[in-house]
Amino acid sequence: MFLKGAASGKILMEEFDLSKLLISRLIICSVFLV
């Protein structure tokens, strides 16, 4: 049970990091385009 929760939490954190990377990349692209 605990291992499963830790694994899902790790996946959630990785997805959160990916979304942050995508958002920051979009912001950088929009800044360069303007």
As residue ranges, the low-confidence spans are none
What's the β-strand tally?
0
Oligomer: single chain
Shape: rod-shaped
Largest sheet: none
Radius of gyration: 15 Å
Task: Tell me what the structure shows.
The mean pLDDT is 82. The chain is mainly alpha-helical and 34 residues long. Helices cover 94% and strands 0% of the residues. It has one helix and no strands.
How would the blueprint of this fold be written?
Layout lengths: L1 H32 L1
Give a quick summary of the entry.
Helix content is about 95%, strand content about 0%. The chain is rod-shaped and about 50 Å long.
Question: What keyword list fits this structure?
Answer:
single chain, 34 residues, mainly alpha, 0% strand
